[in-house]
Amino acid sequence: MVSRRRCAAVFRLQKTDRVNSYSQGNPVLGKLLLQGRLYLSGRLFFPGELCLSGRPYFSGGLALLGKLLLSMLFFVWIAAAAFPGMSCMAAEEDSTIDFVLVLDNSGTMAKSDPEGLTVSAAKMFIDMLPHKNARVAVVEFGSDYGADAYDAEKYSSYVSVPFPLSDISTVGQKIACKKVIAQTTQDGEYTPVGYAFQAACDVLEKGGAKPEDAGILLISDFRVTGQKHEDFLDGGYSYKSLEDAEQTARKNKWPVYTLEMNIDGRNDNPTDYRERIAARLRSGIPEAVGAGDYLPLHNASQAQTLFADIFKQFFDPNNRDDASAQSQTTDDNGDAAFPFSVGEMVAELNVTLTCENSAAIRSIEIGYGGQMAAYDLTAYQEPIQEEDRVITKEDRYVTVKLMLPPPSDDWKVIVHGDARTQLGMYALSIHDMDFTLGVSSAGAPEASDSLTAAPMDTVHLAASFIYDGQRYQAEKVYTEYGAVLEIVGTGQQIPMTAGNSEYFIDLAFDVPGTYTLKAIVNGDTFRTGSIESGICTVTIEGSAAQNVETEPAIEPETETEAVVNSPVTVVGGDLNYTVVLDQDSVPGLLKRFANLPGDGDADGNVKVQWEEHFVDPDGSLPEVEVAVNDPEGVLSLTEDENGMTVHANHPGTATITVAAADAEDPSVQVVMNVNVTAQRAMDQAMRKIRIPVILLVIVLVIVAIIVIRKIRNR
Questions:
Q1: Neighbouring-strand partners of residue 12
Q2: Do residues 608 and 665 both lie within one domain?
Q3: What three-state secondary structure class fits 386?
Q4: What is the β-pairing status of strands 536-540 and 363-368?
């Protein structure tokens, strides 16, 4: 395998600020509803009555003006939402996400969770956790831990941290954490939820967890025994610890997820004061924190769904649903087949198979395109690790973690032994990638960023995408998006060939000197636009005559002067056109204001003449080849010997690559990209007038406020 880790250029996908989809409890400021309702300072008013800081501002005879002002404000809000420049996008690099699992070890858990679902769910959380940028701690409460207590003076002796906040990216680290979780005994005397919650916050703060980059999972039955009064929410202790913990989590925007164990149904008795306490704890904590969720936990499938949502929320808030399951099929032999699809740019795919007892699962198969890999689980002892996957089996689930799965609509997992198995999955997108270029030759087969060769020696250049130290194996991506090799400083670009999950080309240089090269992928590839690798250098030493054995030359009868060929060049670089459709739908005045018809004619046609863009000083016409990257059928193309005519069929974008070869030396090529964006005339016109309209509305609002104040002061 040739290494191509050199000449790396890093590009990153844009990622917006994390948005907590479970936010609860806080009033929303400035929230507009389609019905015309508006919330200001947390209070709702209807059109005609405006409340600012709790005080009516418009009423009675001013109701009409109030409605007018509301309409203006609503229009400004809609326009601002539609105008991309008015929304804020924040690009973040991947940061470490911290989680604390808080597990109830009290004696009542033996009845509320007799089958140990708490342990199964906590282990599943660990196995489903993304393999990069994550730390985990485990807090237990309920037993008297004595010397092993976390901080007996501050949190009582009934709280322990058996697994400190630690990186958990490797299989071995996850095994160590799950061993700690498995030691939960369900024999403790008390249920100090508040102290345990407070200890979890303390673990995060001392571990350097960042605001918004941490979460707490609290799994308990929330049954506080020996309680004298339901206002005391902390197992016989002061409830101040609970309030302090809620304040800390709220300040840092750390969501708290409360998972209730209630298999025996005792928490469903509204006459029992302990149920009232449990109700306030299980749902009251996320509400007080303002972020998180409450879930009654009955089976492993529910836990999988919640955990998948949590991980997507933290690690991939802009996830494009790059993996989706299809209809399950079962047969009479206890087998279940789950087809699913995987999209482009998936960094990690987590497939979780949940059931009542995983011992019934004898084996699984997983693969795509008819190439299935089988795994025998009857004698499972430890996780199965391969270069691109990890398979783990516990008592209620089997997880398959796939790294950089190739995009395909033909993925499938088959379960042998239990047709009642349920499938859950989530995918995380790639947020950063290296694009590398390496050069090698027959005499130097190891790829590097520089090479010395003799004239006319063949040199091999290969470029590929690298993620987390692995080459992105996605033949579909490489073949769909073309790459060119550019000789820096000359403007000369040569198309590269896609294959074997890389771009490659073989070249021979006849003129001594040093050549600087880079690979470029053009177009809307990987949601980033054009991508360039780092540079490679090829140094040619000596002369071509030293490497070619020749026979004695025969003196010509007449000696002619050698003609030096002047290569074809491209003038002006790449072209970018905007073609406007349906121009008749725009009124004449608006059409002139919107600067129609754009780059094309009134019928949406753009003409490109070769002689205007390719120049050969020798006077020869270049040999032109045209390649169209237009998967959506945006364009129609008509070619002749002098140029081409591009016609837009419907809105969208497409790229046309024009390669012009020198007529005297076909090995010399230059490449020009023609990027075409087609849009409807009315859409372009509305974009042109959007800002003036917004400014006009703002002026009208200001005038209306001035008028209203004068009326009120009369």
A1: 432
A2: yes
A3: strand
A4: unpaired
Statement to judge: residues 234 and 301 lie in one domain: yes
Q: Is residue 300 situated within a structural domain?
A: yes
One domain for residues 601 and 509: no
**What is the SS3 assignment for 226?**
coil
If asked whether residues 253 and 311 sit together in one domain, one would say yes
Cα–chain center distance at 697: 37
Domain that holds residue 627: 572-682
- Within 10 Å of residue 289's Cβ, how many Cβ atoms? 28
What region, left, alpha or beta, does residue 696 occupy, with left being phi > 0 and alpha being psi -120 to 50 degrees? Answer: alpha
pLDDT at 72 (0 to 100)? 56
Please say whether the beta carbons of 137 and 207 come within 8 A: yes
**Judgement on whether residues 67 and 186 belong to the same structural domain of the protein:** no
pLDDT digit string (tens) for 444-483? 989 999 999 998 899 999 999 887 777 787 777 787 778 8
pTM exceeding the 0.70 threshold for the entire prediction: no
Residue 472 contacts residue 348 (beta carbons within 8 Å): no
Does 484 lie in the same domain as 383? Answer: no
Q: Which residues contact 616 (CB under 8 A, 6 or more apart)?
A: 566, 567, 568, 569, 622, 662, 663
Q: How far apart are CA 611 and CA 621, in angstroms?
A: 8
Closest residue by Cα to residue 674 from 646, 634, 642 = 646
Q: Give yes or no: residues 113 and 220 share one domain.
A: yes
Angle among Cα 436, 537, 492 to the nearest 5 degrees reads 85
Each residue of 305-314: pLDDT tens digit? 889 888 888 8
Structural domain contains residue 553: no
pLDDT, tens digit, 9 for 90 and up, residues 399-448: 999 988 888 888 999 999 877 888 888 888 776 778 899 999 988 989 99
Q: Which residues contact 550 (CB under 8 A, 6 or more apart)?
A: none
Give the pLDDT confidence score for residue 437 in this predicted structure: 93
The DSSP element (H or E) to which 256 belongs, if any, is strand 256-261
How many other C-beta atoms lie within 10 A of the C-beta of residue 255? 24
Q: How many domains does the chain have?
A: 5
The verdict on 527 and 510 lying in the same domain is: yes
- Would you say 495 and 671 are in contact if contact means Cβ atoms under 8 Å apart? yes
Quote the DSSP letter at residue 321: -
Instruction: Find the CATH number of the domain harbouring 533.
Output: 2.60.40.740
Supply the CATH number for residue 232's domain: 3.40.50.410
Of 507, 485, 503, which Cα lies nearest the Cα of 494?
485
CATH of the domain at 395: 2.60.120
**What angle, rounded to 10 degrees, do the helices at 193-206 and 240-252 form?**
40
Domain-embedded: residue 566:
no
Q: Could you give phi then psi for residue 325, rounded to 5 degrees?
A: -85, 155
Separation of first and last alpha carbons in the chain? 86
Helix/strand/coil for 309: helix
pLDDT one-digit tens code per residue, 18-41: 333 323 333 322 222 233 333 333
Which stretch of DSSP H or E encloses residue 471? strand 470-471
Q: What is the pLDDT of residue 201?
A: 94
- Point out which residues pair with 299 in neighbouring strands: none
Q: Considering only residues 673 and 86, tell me which one the structure prediction assigns the higher pLDDT.
A: 673
* Amino acid code (one letter) for 334: G
Instruction: Specify the pLDDT at position 624.
Output: 83
Q: Between the CA of residue 142 and those of 123, 159, 224, 380, 491, what are the distances in Å?
A: 20, 7, 10, 33, 71
Q: Show which of 400, 429, 458 is a domain's final residue.
A: 429
- pLDDT bin (cut points 50, 70, 90) of residue 375 is very high
Residue 284 within any structural domain of the chain: yes
Tokens 């991309």, located at residue = 84
Please state, for a pLDDT cut of 70, what percent of the chain lies above it. 71
Tell me the residue type at 297.
L
